[in-house]
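REQUEST FORM: STRUCTURE PREDICTION
Request ID: SP-0412
Submitted by: Lab K.M.
Chain count: 1
Length (residues): 71
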Amino acid sequence: IIPGGVLFILLVLSAFPDLFFWNPLLLSGAGLAIMTGAKELTDFIPAVLLSVALIVAALAFALARFRKAAL
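STATUS: Completed
RESULT:
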């Protein structure tokens, strides 16, 4: 349920023009746009930074959660 909820939130946030370049969903079609020269790699820096931050936060949460769990 959580991944679906996050996807829904990202889809809703993509409707706002001010948040468009920060949306990690922008990266899903970035490869082809960069390879064809339609977009520059620097156009995707905000989305990449947010994606990296979310990955680090998820890993930190998982690490903290598994340290508390008894194996």
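NOTES: The mean pLDDT is 89.
Reviewed by: T.R.
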